[in-house]
Specification:
Elements (H helix, E strand, L loop, with lengths): L1 H31 L6 H15 L7 H30 L2 H4 L8 E2 L9 H5 L5 E2 L3
Antiparallel strand pairs: 1-2
């Protein structure tokens, strides 16, 4: 229990910065229509500005260090997953379909050469794009 209370001041400070960044993102969404800067990016920028104007004492260091190392890594992974999910949803079906080659042109089968498939290294009915 003592170890967790050691992290509390710094983690609470980081939670306040995160809450301010989330409010800023919500305001940005209401004003512009969509968030151009995610709350994670805004929180990092707010943290940089806060550090320039105020130097936290030694009591804040363990929680800030934990937040900067562990929690920030988790947040970056979640942000990357959310971006990838949004991009996948917007992708055209031909691009996200398994087994389709975007832009490939149909090709007639070549019956006279039995090694034709092996030389191309691709299915007979597709021609590679050059």
């Amino acid at each position: 229990m003592m170890r967790m209370t050691r992290f509390a001041p710094g983690v609470l400070l980081c939670m306040l910065v995160t809450a301010a960044a989330t409010l800023m993102q919500n305001a940005e969404t209401r004003l512009i229509g969509e968030p151009y800067l995610e709350a994670l990016v805004l929180a990092i920028l707010l943290g940089v500005v806060l550090r320039k104007v105020w130097t936290p004492g030694p009591n804040w260091a363990p929680g800030i260090g934990f937040s900067a190392k562990i929690l920030l890594e988790v947040a970056v992974v979640l942000l990357g997953a959310s971006v990838a999910t949004r991009l996948h949803r917007r992708a055209k079906p031909a691009v996200s379909s398994v087994g389709k080659w975007p832009g490939a042109k149909p090709r007639a089968r070549c019956n006279h050469d039995p090694t034709h498939k092996e030389r191309l290294g691709a299915p007979l009915h597709f021609r590679s794009i050059k």
